[in-house]
Amino acid sequence: MTESQYLTAVYAFNYFGPARIKLLLSYFGKAANVWKAKAHELTEIGLPGAKVCAFDDFRKSFDIEKYFSRLSDLNIRVVTVFDRDYPQNLKGLDGAPTVIYFKGNLDCLKANSVAIVGSRKMTPYGREVTEKFSGELAGFGVTIISGLARGVDTCAHKAALAAGGKTVAVLGNGLDSIYPPENSELAQEIIKRKGAVISELPLGYPILPLNFVTRNRIISGLSSLVVVIEGAEKSGTLITASHAAEQGKTVFAVPGQITSPLSAAPFFLLKNGAIMAESTQDILDELNTPVSIKKNQHTIKRAGHQS
């Protein structure tokens, strides 16, 4: 087994997130040593006894060779944070995933990339604006990043493809299934058109609300900047914007009708340091300048929850 395979196996144990992986590697040196560590060694470094037992059970049931054989059968590839092909936008970010599973081509992430996110319950206005920004940006060679969710995400991916551009979908579940299921064909088209579908979650990982909250940091992390189009007062969209601000990314928000509940998230962001996006040119102008942490973006608070 390779070190990359051992690291993938260790990261597949859900309790070991990026921070714990760093600590384990700093102590044991290699992922292979973590995988082979005795229970008492894991306990001695401060892991709770119940988690050590759970990890022991996990190792007994997890066949690394069979797991990678299944990945190969599904045309799913793996890249770790130590590999040269790991997305550069994610390297160095706090909480960057240790392992990324992907189908397609990660080369599209070497270009300027913009995250377009928003409400699942998209209005006709939201559709019009999403198609405009996503299609026009993709036409200029910008890679569009979103989450393949219903509503704005789906519209952003489709508009990018319609413009002949590339797009990347970040999933909140293992890549052996597509959620929502009606976007299976869209996912295949993204891959076919030299984009990518990615996830940090192992095969078989269930679809849970918390997954979509944590995957949002990857959406913002992969992007040069984030554009928010529609969102309710308590929305996962705000969490993506919070991650972006913490990562030093510029956050744009598209204003909506003041009478629409889905204008709440953009207006909140605009009041708290986001930049108003009136046209695609606003985004292109920002991409032509070095991305920097703007002072007023520190006022963007972590707010809302997944709706």
Describe the structure.
The protein is an alpha/beta fold. The protein folds into two domains: 71 residues, no CATH class; 194 residues, Rossmann fold. 43% of the residues lie in helices and 13% in strands. It is built from 13 helices and nine strands. The protein has a nine-stranded mixed β-sheet with strand order 1-2-6-5-4-3-7-8-9, with helices on both faces. Helix 7 links the parallel strand 3 and strand 4. Helix 7 runs parallel beside helix 8 and helix 10 runs parallel beside helix 11. The longest helix is centred in the middle third of the chain and has 16 residues. The termini are far apart. The C terminus is likely disordered. Belongs to the DprA/Smf family.
% residues in beta strands: 5-15%
Q: Give the termini distance in whole angstroms.
A: 42 Å
**CATH-scheme architecture of the largest domain:** 3-Layer(aba) Sandwich
Biggest sheet strand line-up: 1-2-6-5-4-3-7-8-9
What value does the average pLDDT take? 91
GO biological process, one term: DNA-mediated transformation
Protein name: Protecting protein DprA protein
Domain Smf/DprA SLOG: 78-287
Family: Belongs to the DprA/Smf family.
